[in-house]
Amino acid sequence: MIDISILVLKNAVAASIADAGYVFKIVNELLEKSDKEPLFRVKLVGLSKEVKLNNGLFHITTDALIDEVEHTNLVIIPSMTGDAVGGSYINREFAPWITEQYKKGAEVASLCVGAFLLAYTGLLKGKQCTTHWAYVNEFRYYYPDINLVDEKVITHQNGLYSSGGNNAYWNLLLYLVEKYTNRSIAIHTAKFFVIDLDRKDQSPFIIFTGQKNHKDQVIINAQEFIEQNYADKLTIDQVADTVHISRRTFERRFKKATRNTVVEYIQRVKIEATKKQLEIGRKSINEVMYEVGYADVKTFRDVFKKITGMTPNEYRNKYNKE
């Protein structure tokens, strides 16, 4: 029997707790229908017997307190609502227990923004992780020693798992089902929940809005200049000149503030503009390419695919239904 402990955090997304428990319940039923013994024993584990979520909209009764669980095989950290860093702090009492269980041999899986609590434990240092794309800059700022691969839907390294934005946790749950059972059961479970079993990349879903959650007004001015003039052939020297600082100082301050190099930022602004054109416009891909400031088809295509995980044509076919 595989014991699974789903943590009932103080600011958990109730759906991620319910869905995780339901997935393993369905797998047990599938196994029983195949004349096999149920494999998973799921417990909701918390700091108190009852946890109120969403300002009291949901009440969850836990099966056990963390100090009552001496051993488990898998710890699931659900997604969290609100401020991710603050949310980790208010759940900090879970961290020593998670670390202890991991050292005893348990695996740990974080769903979506739950990655912040997993990062808080220190277990992810030097390892890969993913989370919701909207929180990646904040994650990189507070946890620079973790290799954040935000384009990935799931990551797995040394018994530590993570999933990307919102519904991506379904892919991680199915990944765990396959790991603990077999491919056939995972496929059956995916069909039951109508989930694309092998989705690997969340890049197409990322919306780049510019990283302005910092206090360097000079760099904010530079970002705004880029966003207003992205169609031009901007150079680093040109942008640095507009804010009246040396190129070397500008590049250092820009990377510190935005967690992107200047070139990366310009590329992401151009590609975000391209995505919007491909989603709603009727212009050809070449026309859009020229409008956002690219002249070389191969360069444009390579940058677009690097950022979105898809070619411009694939992106248009997926999101433009005109």
Describe the structure.
The longest helix has 20 residues, at 14-33. The protein has 2 domains: 2-204, Class I glutamine amidotransferase (GATase) domain (Rossmann fold, 3-Layer(aba) Sandwich), CATH 3.40.50; 217-319, Arc Repressor Mutant, subunit A (Orthogonal Bundle), CATH 1.10.10.60. It is 47% helix and 13% strand. It contains 14 helices and 11 strands. It has a 7-stranded mixed beta sheet with strand order 5-2-1-6-7-11-10, sandwiched between helices. It has helices spanning 14-33, 84-90, 94-103, 115-120, 136-142, 169-180, 183-193, 217-228, 236-242, 247-258, 262-280, 285-291, 297-308, 312-319; strands at 2-7, 40-46, 50-53, 58-61, 64-65, 74-77, 107-110, 128-129, 147-148, 154-157, 160-163. Helix 5 (136-142) links the parallel strand 8 (128-129) and strand 9. The N and C termini lie far apart (52 Å). With 322 residues, it is an alpha/beta fold. Helix 1 (14-33) packs parallel to helix 6, helix 1 (14-33) crosses helix 7 (183-193) and helix 11 crosses helix 14. The model has no long low-confidence stretch (mean pLDDT 90).
